[in-house]
Amino acid sequence: MPSIIEQFTADHVALSRIYPLVISPARVARFEKFYHDELAMLSTIDFNSLSQEDKVDYLLLKNLLTGDLHQLTIEKRQVEEIQPLIPFAAAIEDLLDRKRLMQQPDPEKDAALLTAMVKQIDATRKQLDPSPREARQRGDQTATDDTNSSDTKPKVDPVIANRAVEATRQLSAELKDWFTQYNGYNPTFDWWVDLPYKDADKALTGYGVFLKEKVIGIKADDKTTIIGDPVGRDALLSELSDAMIPYTPEELIAIAQTEYDWCMREMLKASHEMGYGDDWHAAVEKVKQMHVPPGEQPELIRKLVVEGSDFVKQNNLVTVPPLADETWTMIMMSPERQLVNPFFTGGSQISVSYPTDTMTYEPREMSMRGNNIPFAHATAFHEMIPGHFLQFYMNARYRTYRRAFSTPFWSEGNALWWEMLFYDKGFERTPEERVGALVWRMQRSARVIFTMNFHLGKWSPQKCVQFLIDNVGFESDNALAEVRRSFDGSVGPLYQCAYLMGGLQFRAMHHELVDSHKMTDREFHDAILHEGPMSIEMLRADLENGKLTADFQTTWKYYGEHPTHP
Protein backbone atom coordinates (compact mmCIF):
# COMPACT_ATOMS: atom_id res chain seq x y z
CA MET A 1 0.00 0.00 0.00
CA PRO A 2 2.74 2.60 0.64
CA SER A 3 3.82 2.57 -3.02
CA ILE A 4 0.19 2.82 -4.18
CA ILE A 5 -0.36 5.81 -1.90
CA GLU A 6 2.86 7.48 -3.05
CA GLN A 7 1.76 7.12 -6.67
CA PHE A 8 -1.70 8.50 -5.85
CA THR A 9 -0.13 11.51 -4.13
CA ALA A 10 2.20 12.21 -7.06
CA ASP A 11 -0.67 11.88 -9.55
CA HIS A 12 -2.82 14.22 -7.45
CA VAL A 13 -0.08 16.84 -7.36
CA ALA A 14 0.41 16.56 -11.12
CA LEU A 15 -3.30 16.98 -11.86
CA SER A 16 -3.63 19.88 -9.40
CA ARG A 17 -0.79 21.64 -11.17
CA ILE A 18 -2.27 21.28 -14.63
CA TYR A 19 -5.86 22.05 -13.52
CA PRO A 20 -5.29 25.00 -11.16
CA LEU A 21 -8.68 26.73 -11.50
CA VAL A 22 -10.99 25.27 -8.84
CA ILE A 23 -14.20 26.41 -10.55
CA SER A 24 -13.26 24.96 -13.94
CA PRO A 25 -15.65 22.24 -15.24
CA ALA A 26 -12.66 20.58 -16.90
CA ARG A 27 -10.91 20.26 -13.53
CA VAL A 28 -14.00 18.86 -11.82
CA ALA A 29 -14.55 16.29 -14.55
CA ARG A 30 -10.90 15.20 -14.55
CA PHE A 31 -10.73 14.78 -10.79
CA GLU A 32 -14.02 12.88 -10.71
CA LYS A 33 -12.56 10.42 -13.18
CA PHE A 34 -9.29 10.25 -11.25
CA TYR A 35 -10.99 9.44 -7.93
CA HIS A 36 -13.32 6.86 -9.47
CA ASP A 37 -10.40 5.21 -11.27
CA GLU A 38 -8.48 4.99 -7.99
CA LEU A 39 -11.47 3.46 -6.21
CA ALA A 40 -11.83 0.93 -9.00
CA MET A 41 -8.15 0.02 -8.64
CA LEU A 42 -8.58 -0.48 -4.88
CA SER A 43 -11.53 -2.81 -5.46
CA THR A 44 -9.24 -5.22 -7.32
CA ILE A 45 -7.03 -5.72 -4.23
CA ASP A 46 -7.71 -8.72 -1.98
CA PHE A 47 -8.25 -6.86 1.28
CA ASN A 48 -8.21 -9.96 3.49
CA SER A 49 -4.73 -10.93 2.28
CA LEU A 50 -3.24 -7.62 3.45
CA SER A 51 -1.28 -7.11 6.64
CA GLN A 52 -2.91 -5.06 9.41
CA GLU A 53 -0.86 -1.99 8.49
CA ASP A 54 -1.74 -2.36 4.79
CA LYS A 55 -5.42 -2.73 5.74
CA VAL A 56 -5.19 0.54 7.62
CA ASP A 57 -3.59 2.23 4.60
CA TYR A 58 -6.16 0.72 2.24
CA LEU A 59 -9.02 2.12 4.31
CA LEU A 60 -7.30 5.48 4.70
CA LEU A 61 -6.95 5.82 0.93
CA LYS A 62 -10.48 4.63 0.27
CA ASN A 63 -11.86 7.07 2.82
CA LEU A 64 -9.80 9.92 1.35
CA LEU A 65 -11.12 9.21 -2.14
CA THR A 66 -14.77 9.07 -1.09
CA GLY A 67 -14.28 12.26 0.93
CA ASP A 68 -12.72 14.02 -2.06
CA LEU A 69 -15.70 13.00 -4.20
CA HIS A 70 -18.03 14.46 -1.58
CA GLN A 71 -16.05 17.72 -1.72
CA LEU A 72 -16.35 17.82 -5.51
CA THR A 73 -20.12 17.53 -5.18
CA ILE A 74 -20.20 20.48 -2.78
CA GLU A 75 -17.87 22.51 -5.01
CA LYS A 76 -20.01 21.85 -8.09
CA ARG A 77 -23.13 23.08 -6.30
CA GLN A 78 -21.34 26.19 -5.09
CA VAL A 79 -20.01 26.96 -8.57
CA GLU A 80 -23.49 26.55 -10.06
CA GLU A 81 -24.81 29.08 -7.55
CA ILE A 82 -22.27 31.74 -8.53
CA GLN A 83 -22.50 31.24 -12.31
CA PRO A 84 -24.99 34.13 -12.80
CA LEU A 85 -22.43 36.44 -11.17
CA ILE A 86 -19.48 35.28 -13.28
CA PRO A 87 -20.87 34.61 -16.79
CA PHE A 88 -17.48 35.66 -18.19
CA ALA A 89 -15.69 32.73 -16.52
CA ALA A 90 -16.22 30.46 -19.53
CA ALA A 91 -14.10 32.75 -21.72
CA ILE A 92 -11.12 32.50 -19.37
CA GLU A 93 -11.64 28.76 -18.95
CA ASP A 94 -11.45 28.41 -22.75
CA LEU A 95 -8.10 30.24 -22.83
CA LEU A 96 -6.76 28.10 -19.99
CA ASP A 97 -7.88 24.86 -21.61
CA ARG A 98 -6.07 25.75 -24.83
CA LYS A 99 -2.98 26.70 -22.83
CA ARG A 100 -3.12 23.37 -20.95
CA LEU A 101 -3.33 21.51 -24.27
CA MET A 102 -0.40 23.62 -25.54
CA GLN A 103 -2.37 24.81 -28.56
CA GLN A 104 -0.93 27.72 -30.47
CA PRO A 105 -2.78 30.94 -29.49
CA ASP A 106 -4.89 32.74 -32.07
CA PRO A 107 -4.05 36.37 -31.13
CA GLU A 108 -6.81 38.05 -33.13
CA LYS A 109 -9.44 35.64 -31.82
CA ASP A 110 -8.12 35.93 -28.26
CA ALA A 111 -8.21 39.73 -28.43
CA ALA A 112 -11.83 39.58 -29.60
CA LEU A 113 -12.69 37.17 -26.78
CA LEU A 114 -11.14 39.46 -24.15
CA THR A 115 -12.87 42.51 -25.59
CA ALA A 116 -16.23 40.74 -25.50
CA MET A 117 -15.51 39.63 -21.94
CA VAL A 118 -14.98 43.23 -20.79
CA LYS A 119 -18.36 44.15 -22.26
CA GLN A 120 -19.93 41.16 -20.52
CA ILE A 121 -18.45 42.23 -17.18
CA ASP A 122 -19.81 45.73 -17.68
CA ALA A 123 -23.24 44.37 -18.58
CA THR A 124 -23.28 42.16 -15.49
CA ARG A 125 -22.38 45.14 -13.30
CA LYS A 126 -25.21 47.19 -14.74
CA GLN A 127 -27.65 44.35 -14.25
CA LEU A 128 -26.64 44.01 -10.59
CA ASP A 129 -26.62 47.73 -9.83
CA PRO A 130 -28.60 49.63 -12.48
CA SER A 131 -29.00 53.37 -12.58
CA PRO A 132 -32.61 54.68 -12.61
CA ARG A 133 -32.45 55.27 -16.37
CA GLU A 134 -31.14 51.75 -17.02
CA ALA A 135 -33.86 50.34 -14.80
CA ARG A 136 -36.52 52.11 -16.90
CA GLN A 137 -34.93 50.83 -20.11
CA ARG A 138 -35.27 47.31 -18.72
CA GLY A 139 -38.99 47.91 -18.26
CA ASP A 140 -39.22 48.95 -14.62
CA GLN A 141 -42.03 51.54 -14.85
CA THR A 142 -41.70 52.51 -11.17
CA ALA A 143 -38.18 53.82 -11.60
CA THR A 144 -37.70 57.60 -11.60
CA ASP A 145 -34.65 59.78 -11.76
CA ASP A 146 -34.89 60.11 -7.98
CA THR A 147 -35.15 56.38 -7.40
CA ASN A 148 -32.35 54.89 -5.36
CA SER A 149 -30.67 52.20 -7.46
CA SER A 150 -30.65 49.88 -4.43
CA ASP A 151 -34.45 49.72 -4.73
CA THR A 152 -34.29 48.26 -8.23
CA LYS A 153 -31.17 46.10 -8.22
CA PRO A 154 -31.63 42.33 -7.97
CA LYS A 155 -31.31 40.75 -4.54
CA VAL A 156 -28.10 38.74 -4.26
CA ASP A 157 -27.20 36.50 -1.34
CA PRO A 158 -24.04 38.03 0.23
CA VAL A 159 -22.63 34.54 0.79
CA ILE A 160 -22.87 33.71 -2.92
CA ALA A 161 -21.55 37.13 -3.89
CA ASN A 162 -18.59 36.60 -1.58
CA ARG A 163 -17.84 33.32 -3.35
CA ALA A 164 -17.96 35.21 -6.64
CA VAL A 165 -15.39 37.69 -5.30
CA GLU A 166 -12.95 34.85 -4.61
CA ALA A 167 -13.73 33.21 -7.98
CA THR A 168 -13.05 36.53 -9.75
CA ARG A 169 -9.72 36.82 -7.94
CA GLN A 170 -8.74 33.30 -9.08
CA LEU A 171 -9.84 34.01 -12.64
CA SER A 172 -7.79 37.20 -12.68
CA ALA A 173 -4.69 35.37 -11.41
CA GLU A 174 -5.02 32.56 -13.95
CA LEU A 175 -5.64 35.02 -16.79
CA LYS A 176 -2.43 36.82 -15.85
CA ASP A 177 -0.58 33.50 -15.94
CA TRP A 178 -2.03 32.81 -19.39
CA PHE A 179 -0.96 36.22 -20.69
CA THR A 180 2.55 35.89 -19.23
CA GLN A 181 2.96 32.57 -21.01
CA TYR A 182 2.95 34.24 -24.43
CA ASN A 183 3.68 37.92 -23.83
CA GLY A 184 7.09 38.98 -25.13
CA TYR A 185 7.63 35.75 -27.05
CA ASN A 186 5.19 36.26 -29.91
CA PRO A 187 5.14 39.70 -31.63
CA THR A 188 1.76 39.03 -33.19
CA PHE A 189 0.32 38.06 -29.80
CA ASP A 190 1.63 41.26 -28.20
CA TRP A 191 0.25 43.41 -31.04
CA TRP A 192 -3.26 41.98 -30.73
CA VAL A 193 -3.63 41.02 -27.08
CA ASP A 194 -1.64 43.51 -24.98
CA LEU A 195 -4.30 46.23 -24.68
CA PRO A 196 -7.34 43.88 -24.53
CA TYR A 197 -5.62 41.95 -21.73
CA LYS A 198 -4.94 45.13 -19.74
CA ASP A 199 -8.57 46.15 -20.18
CA ALA A 200 -9.74 42.71 -19.07
CA ASP A 201 -7.44 42.68 -16.04
CA LYS A 202 -8.69 46.11 -15.01
CA ALA A 203 -12.32 45.05 -15.53
CA LEU A 204 -11.87 41.91 -13.41
CA THR A 205 -10.21 43.85 -10.60
CA GLY A 206 -12.92 46.48 -10.71
CA TYR A 207 -15.65 43.85 -10.77
CA GLY A 208 -14.27 42.20 -7.63
CA VAL A 209 -14.30 45.56 -5.85
CA PHE A 210 -17.81 46.24 -7.19
CA LEU A 211 -19.13 42.94 -5.84
CA LYS A 212 -17.59 43.57 -2.45
CA GLU A 213 -18.64 47.19 -2.05
CA LYS A 214 -21.87 47.50 -4.02
CA VAL A 215 -23.40 44.02 -3.92
CA ILE A 216 -22.19 42.74 -0.53
CA GLY A 217 -21.86 46.17 1.04
CA ILE A 218 -18.34 45.94 2.48
CA LYS A 219 -16.31 49.11 2.05
CA ALA A 220 -12.58 49.06 1.42
CA ASP A 221 -11.72 50.15 4.97
CA ASP A 222 -14.16 47.72 6.63
CA LYS A 223 -12.18 45.39 8.90
CA THR A 224 -15.07 44.06 10.97
CA THR A 225 -17.67 42.55 8.62
CA ILE A 226 -17.48 38.77 8.22
CA ILE A 227 -19.63 37.00 5.64
CA GLY A 228 -18.81 33.29 5.92
CA ASP A 229 -20.35 30.43 3.96
CA PRO A 230 -22.51 28.08 6.08
CA VAL A 231 -22.52 24.62 4.51
CA GLY A 232 -25.71 23.24 6.13
CA ARG A 233 -26.43 20.14 8.19
CA ASP A 234 -26.25 17.58 5.36
CA ALA A 235 -22.78 18.73 4.34
CA LEU A 236 -21.65 18.68 7.98
CA LEU A 237 -22.86 15.10 8.35
CA SER A 238 -20.94 14.08 5.21
CA GLU A 239 -17.79 15.81 6.45
CA LEU A 240 -18.11 14.16 9.87
CA SER A 241 -18.53 10.77 8.25
CA ASP A 242 -15.43 11.35 6.09
CA ALA A 243 -13.51 12.38 9.21
CA MET A 244 -14.68 9.18 10.98
CA ILE A 245 -16.55 11.10 13.66
CA PRO A 246 -19.72 9.13 14.55
CA TYR A 247 -21.62 12.05 16.06
CA THR A 248 -24.13 14.59 14.75
CA PRO A 249 -23.42 18.35 14.89
CA GLU A 250 -25.91 18.63 17.75
CA GLU A 251 -24.12 15.89 19.69
CA LEU A 252 -20.79 17.65 19.18
CA ILE A 253 -22.28 20.84 20.60
CA ALA A 254 -23.47 18.91 23.66
CA ILE A 255 -20.03 17.32 24.16
CA ALA A 256 -18.37 20.71 23.85
CA GLN A 257 -20.76 22.19 26.40
CA THR A 258 -19.92 19.39 28.86
CA GLU A 259 -16.20 20.10 28.43
CA TYR A 260 -16.82 23.84 28.77
CA ASP A 261 -18.72 23.28 32.01
CA TRP A 262 -15.72 21.37 33.43
CA CYS A 263 -13.45 24.23 32.40
CA MET A 264 -15.74 26.72 34.11
CA ARG A 265 -15.60 24.78 37.37
CA GLU A 266 -11.81 24.78 37.20
CA MET A 267 -11.82 28.48 36.23
CA LEU A 268 -13.91 29.40 39.29
CA LYS A 269 -11.48 27.52 41.55
CA ALA A 270 -8.56 29.52 40.13
CA SER A 271 -10.55 32.75 40.31
CA HIS A 272 -11.25 32.16 43.99
CA GLU A 273 -7.54 31.48 44.63
CA MET A 274 -6.71 34.80 42.97
CA GLY A 275 -9.20 36.61 45.21
CA TYR A 276 -11.87 37.35 42.60
CA GLY A 277 -14.51 34.88 43.75
CA ASP A 278 -17.00 33.96 41.05
CA ASP A 279 -16.01 36.95 38.91
CA TRP A 280 -13.88 34.89 36.57
CA HIS A 281 -13.85 37.68 33.99
CA ALA A 282 -11.93 39.78 36.53
CA ALA A 283 -9.42 36.95 36.95
CA VAL A 284 -8.96 36.77 33.17
CA GLU A 285 -8.57 40.56 33.07
CA LYS A 286 -5.81 40.35 35.68
CA VAL A 287 -4.02 37.69 33.62
CA LYS A 288 -4.25 39.83 30.46
CA GLN A 289 -2.28 42.55 32.22
CA MET A 290 0.61 40.13 32.82
CA HIS A 291 2.41 40.81 29.54
CA VAL A 292 6.00 41.73 28.81
CA PRO A 293 6.98 45.13 27.37
CA PRO A 294 7.45 45.56 23.60
CA GLY A 295 10.68 43.93 22.46
CA GLU A 296 10.74 41.20 25.11
CA GLN A 297 8.14 38.80 23.69
CA PRO A 298 10.60 36.74 21.57
CA GLU A 299 12.74 35.93 24.63
CA LEU A 300 9.64 34.97 26.61
CA ILE A 301 8.48 32.59 23.86
CA ARG A 302 11.97 31.05 23.59
CA LYS A 303 11.99 30.29 27.32
CA LEU A 304 8.49 28.82 27.20
CA VAL A 305 9.29 26.53 24.25
CA VAL A 306 12.38 25.24 26.08
CA GLU A 307 10.30 24.74 29.23
CA GLY A 308 7.76 22.60 27.35
CA SER A 309 10.48 20.45 25.80
CA ASP A 310 12.15 19.98 29.18
CA PHE A 311 8.83 19.03 30.79
CA VAL A 312 8.16 16.09 28.46
CA LYS A 313 11.72 14.85 28.84
CA GLN A 314 11.68 15.10 32.63
CA ASN A 315 8.37 13.20 32.76
CA ASN A 316 9.40 10.64 30.11
CA LEU A 317 6.34 11.44 28.00
CA VAL A 318 7.78 11.34 24.46
CA THR A 319 11.13 11.07 22.70
CA VAL A 320 12.59 14.47 21.75
CA PRO A 321 15.62 14.01 19.47
CA PRO A 322 18.46 16.48 20.24
CA LEU A 323 18.26 17.68 16.64
CA ALA A 324 14.62 18.69 17.19
CA ASP A 325 15.64 20.89 20.11
CA GLU A 326 18.41 22.35 17.98
CA THR A 327 16.55 23.15 14.76
CA TRP A 328 13.35 25.00 15.64
CA THR A 329 13.28 28.69 14.68
CA MET A 330 11.25 31.83 15.32
CA ILE A 331 9.79 34.63 13.17
CA MET A 332 7.64 37.65 14.00
CA MET A 333 4.10 37.79 12.59
CA SER A 334 3.13 40.65 10.26
CA PRO A 335 0.34 43.07 11.28
CA GLU A 336 -1.71 41.87 8.27
CA ARG A 337 -1.53 38.25 9.34
CA GLN A 338 -2.46 39.19 12.91
CA LEU A 339 -5.87 40.24 11.57
CA VAL A 340 -6.71 36.53 11.19
CA ASN A 341 -4.14 35.01 13.58
CA PRO A 342 -4.04 37.24 16.67
CA PHE A 343 -2.00 34.66 18.61
CA PHE A 344 1.28 32.97 17.75
CA THR A 345 1.26 29.89 15.54
CA GLY A 346 3.67 27.00 15.08
CA GLY A 347 4.87 24.27 12.78
CA SER A 348 8.30 24.21 11.22
CA GLN A 349 8.86 27.48 13.11
CA ILE A 350 7.03 29.54 15.71
CA SER A 351 5.46 32.76 14.45
CA VAL A 352 5.17 35.28 17.28
CA SER A 353 2.25 37.71 17.38
CA TYR A 354 2.93 41.03 19.12
CA PRO A 355 2.36 44.74 18.34
CA THR A 356 4.38 46.54 15.69
CA ASP A 357 5.06 50.26 15.28
CA THR A 358 2.47 50.44 12.48
CA MET A 359 -0.42 49.60 14.81
CA THR A 360 -2.51 52.27 16.49
CA TYR A 361 -2.88 52.38 20.27
CA GLU A 362 -5.90 50.13 20.79
CA PRO A 363 -4.72 47.27 18.51
CA ARG A 364 -1.33 47.39 20.26
CA GLU A 365 -2.98 47.07 23.66
CA MET A 366 -5.20 44.20 22.53
CA SER A 367 -2.27 42.35 20.96
CA MET A 368 -0.19 42.59 24.15
CA ARG A 369 -3.12 41.66 26.40
CA GLY A 370 -4.08 38.74 24.18
CA ASN A 371 -0.51 37.42 24.13
CA ASN A 372 0.14 37.67 27.85
CA ILE A 373 2.50 35.41 29.79
CA PRO A 374 -0.06 32.87 31.17
CA PHE A 375 -1.78 32.56 27.77
CA ALA A 376 1.59 31.97 26.08
CA HIS A 377 2.73 29.56 28.82
CA ALA A 378 -0.26 27.34 28.08
CA THR A 379 0.27 27.06 24.33
CA ALA A 380 3.94 27.55 23.39
CA PHE A 381 4.46 23.78 23.74
CA HIS A 382 1.26 23.21 21.68
CA GLU A 383 2.92 24.99 18.77
CA MET A 384 6.41 23.51 19.07
CA ILE A 385 7.56 20.65 21.33
CA PRO A 386 5.80 18.27 21.91
CA GLY A 387 3.18 19.82 19.59
CA HIS A 388 3.29 20.91 15.97
CA PHE A 389 7.04 21.25 15.51
CA LEU A 390 7.66 17.74 16.79
CA GLN A 391 4.85 16.49 14.54
CA PHE A 392 6.48 18.12 11.51
CA TYR A 393 9.87 16.74 12.54
CA MET A 394 8.61 13.14 12.87
CA ASN A 395 6.33 13.28 9.81
CA ALA A 396 9.40 14.06 7.70
CA ARG A 397 11.16 10.95 9.03
CA TYR A 398 8.54 8.23 9.59
CA ARG A 399 5.98 6.87 7.11
CA THR A 400 6.20 9.99 5.00
CA TYR A 401 3.67 8.63 2.51
CA ARG A 402 0.95 9.07 5.13
CA ARG A 403 1.15 12.86 4.91
CA ALA A 404 -1.54 12.45 2.24
CA PHE A 405 -3.91 11.60 5.10
CA SER A 406 -3.22 14.71 7.18
CA THR A 407 -6.24 15.78 9.18
CA PRO A 408 -6.68 18.48 11.83
CA PHE A 409 -8.22 15.87 14.11
CA TRP A 410 -4.73 14.32 14.26
CA SER A 411 -2.51 17.42 14.11
CA GLU A 412 -4.56 19.89 16.14
CA GLY A 413 -6.13 17.17 18.26
CA ASN A 414 -2.74 15.79 19.25
CA ALA A 415 -1.45 19.27 20.16
CA LEU A 416 -4.57 19.89 22.27
CA TRP A 417 -4.16 16.48 23.92
CA TRP A 418 -0.78 17.69 25.14
CA GLU A 419 -2.54 20.69 26.72
CA MET A 420 -4.88 18.30 28.53
CA LEU A 421 -2.04 16.08 29.72
CA PHE A 422 0.17 18.99 30.80
CA TYR A 423 -2.71 20.41 32.85
CA ASP A 424 -3.38 17.07 34.52
CA LYS A 425 0.32 16.66 35.35
CA GLY A 426 0.60 20.06 37.03
CA PHE A 427 2.50 22.01 34.38
CA GLU A 428 0.48 25.09 35.36
CA ARG A 429 1.77 25.81 38.87
CA THR A 430 -0.08 29.02 39.80
CA PRO A 431 -3.76 30.00 39.58
CA GLU A 432 -2.79 32.63 36.98
CA GLU A 433 -1.18 29.96 34.81
CA ARG A 434 -4.24 27.76 35.23
CA VAL A 435 -6.49 30.64 34.14
CA GLY A 436 -4.32 31.05 31.03
CA ALA A 437 -4.62 27.35 30.22
CA LEU A 438 -8.35 27.25 30.91
CA VAL A 439 -9.08 30.20 28.62
CA TRP A 440 -7.67 28.12 25.75
CA ARG A 441 -9.57 25.01 26.81
CA MET A 442 -12.77 27.07 26.96
CA GLN A 443 -11.96 28.52 23.54
CA ARG A 444 -11.69 25.02 22.03
CA SER A 445 -15.13 24.14 23.39
CA ALA A 446 -16.48 27.49 22.18
CA ARG A 447 -15.10 26.80 18.71
CA VAL A 448 -17.21 23.66 18.41
CA ILE A 449 -20.30 25.45 19.67
CA PHE A 450 -20.08 28.54 17.48
CA THR A 451 -18.84 26.87 14.26
CA MET A 452 -21.46 24.12 14.36
CA ASN A 453 -24.23 26.64 15.06
CA PHE A 454 -22.97 28.88 12.25
CA HIS A 455 -22.82 26.08 9.68
CA LEU A 456 -26.24 24.86 10.81
CA GLY A 457 -27.51 28.33 9.87
CA LYS A 458 -28.47 29.23 13.45
CA TRP A 459 -25.83 31.85 14.35
CA SER A 460 -24.46 34.88 12.54
CA PRO A 461 -20.72 35.68 12.54
CA GLN A 462 -21.49 38.62 14.82
CA LYS A 463 -23.14 36.35 17.37
CA CYS A 464 -20.08 34.08 17.23
CA VAL A 465 -17.81 37.03 18.01
CA GLN A 466 -19.91 38.08 21.00
CA PHE A 467 -20.05 34.48 22.22
CA LEU A 468 -16.24 34.39 22.41
CA ILE A 469 -16.11 37.71 24.24
CA ASP A 470 -18.74 36.67 26.80
CA ASN A 471 -17.86 33.01 27.32
CA VAL A 472 -14.08 32.94 26.83
CA GLY A 473 -13.06 36.45 27.80
CA PHE A 474 -11.35 37.33 24.51
CA GLU A 475 -10.51 40.89 23.50
CA SER A 476 -12.97 42.12 20.86
CA ASP A 477 -10.31 42.34 18.12
CA ASN A 478 -9.03 38.87 18.96
CA ALA A 479 -12.54 37.41 18.96
CA LEU A 480 -13.17 39.05 15.58
CA ALA A 481 -9.94 37.59 14.16
CA GLU A 482 -10.83 34.15 15.53
CA VAL A 483 -14.23 34.17 13.83
CA ARG A 484 -12.80 35.63 10.61
CA ARG A 485 -10.26 32.81 10.44
CA SER A 486 -13.03 30.27 11.05
CA PHE A 487 -15.21 31.45 8.16
CA ASP A 488 -12.93 33.14 5.59
CA GLY A 489 -12.46 29.94 3.60
CA SER A 490 -8.89 29.27 4.74
CA VAL A 491 -10.04 26.26 6.80
CA GLY A 492 -12.83 23.75 6.31
CA PRO A 493 -16.06 23.68 8.34
CA LEU A 494 -14.72 21.01 10.74
CA TYR A 495 -11.25 22.48 11.31
CA GLN A 496 -12.07 24.49 14.41
CA CYS A 497 -13.97 21.65 16.07
CA ALA A 498 -11.11 19.23 15.30
CA TYR A 499 -9.01 20.61 18.16
CA LEU A 500 -11.36 19.47 20.91
CA MET A 501 -12.75 16.38 19.20
CA GLY A 502 -9.31 15.15 18.19
CA GLY A 503 -8.02 15.82 21.69
CA LEU A 504 -10.88 13.83 23.18
CA GLN A 505 -10.13 10.94 20.82
CA PHE A 506 -6.50 10.90 21.94
CA ARG A 507 -7.62 11.08 25.57
CA ALA A 508 -9.91 8.08 25.06
CA MET A 509 -7.15 6.11 23.35
CA HIS A 510 -4.69 7.06 26.11
CA HIS A 511 -7.18 5.66 28.62
CA GLU A 512 -7.42 2.39 26.66
CA LEU A 513 -3.68 1.90 26.18
CA VAL A 514 -1.80 3.77 28.93
CA ASP A 515 -4.19 3.79 31.88
CA SER A 516 -4.58 0.02 31.28
CA HIS A 517 -0.75 -0.32 31.39
CA LYS A 518 -0.55 -1.83 27.91
CA MET A 519 1.84 0.97 26.93
CA THR A 520 3.85 3.62 28.73
CA ASP A 521 3.25 7.31 28.06
CA ARG A 522 6.43 7.47 26.03
CA GLU A 523 5.61 4.36 23.99
CA PHE A 524 2.12 5.71 23.30
CA HIS A 525 3.22 9.15 22.17
CA ASP A 526 6.16 7.84 20.15
CA ALA A 527 3.82 5.42 18.36
CA ILE A 528 1.44 8.25 17.43
CA LEU A 529 4.27 10.24 15.84
CA HIS A 530 5.89 7.24 14.16
CA GLU A 531 2.63 5.99 12.61
CA GLY A 532 1.98 9.41 11.07
CA PRO A 533 -1.14 11.51 10.45
CA MET A 534 -4.46 9.79 9.83
CA SER A 535 -8.02 9.54 11.08
CA ILE A 536 -7.65 8.73 14.76
CA GLU A 537 -10.02 5.77 14.62
CA MET A 538 -7.67 4.21 12.07
CA LEU A 539 -4.71 4.97 14.33
CA ARG A 540 -6.58 3.23 17.14
CA ALA A 541 -7.17 0.18 14.94
CA ASP A 542 -3.47 0.20 14.02
CA LEU A 543 -2.19 0.43 17.61
CA GLU A 544 -4.79 -1.91 19.10
CA ASN A 545 -4.87 -4.38 16.18
CA GLY A 546 -8.61 -3.85 15.75
CA LYS A 547 -10.65 -5.96 13.35
CA LEU A 548 -10.96 -4.31 9.93
CA THR A 549 -13.07 -5.07 6.86
CA ALA A 550 -13.01 -3.59 3.37
CA ASP A 551 -16.38 -1.90 4.00
CA PHE A 552 -15.35 -0.52 7.40
CA GLN A 553 -17.65 2.13 8.88
CA THR A 554 -16.88 4.34 11.87
CA THR A 555 -18.51 3.22 15.13
CA TRP A 556 -16.12 4.39 17.87
CA LYS A 557 -18.01 6.47 20.42
CA TYR A 558 -14.95 8.00 22.00
CA TYR A 559 -16.79 10.22 24.47
CA GLY A 560 -18.44 8.90 27.62
CA GLU A 561 -16.86 5.45 27.73
CA HIS A 562 -14.19 6.47 30.22
CA PRO A 563 -13.79 8.99 33.07
CA THR A 564 -14.32 12.46 31.64
CA HIS A 565 -11.53 13.94 33.75
CA PRO A 566 -9.04 12.64 36.31
Per DSSP E runs of 2 or more residues, the count of β-strands stands at 2
Mean of the pLDDT scores?
91
Distance between the termini: 39 Å
Order of helices and strands: HHHHHHHHHHHHHEEHHHHHHHHHH
Low-confidence stretches: 133-150
- Number of helical runs? 23
Which bin fits the share of residues in helices?
A: 55-70%
What is the overall silhouette? globular
Overall radius of gyration:
26 Å
Whole-number tally of structural domains: 3
Q: Proportion of β residues? A: under 5%
Report on this model:
This protein has 566 residues and is mainly α. It has 3 domains: 2-84; 86-216, no CATH class; 234-544, no CATH class. It contains 23 helices and 2 strands. The chain has a two-stranded parallel sheet. Residues 133-150 have low confidence and may be disordered.
Please name the defining characteristics of this protein:
two-stranded parallel ribbon; mainly alpha; 566 residues; 3 domains; 23 helices
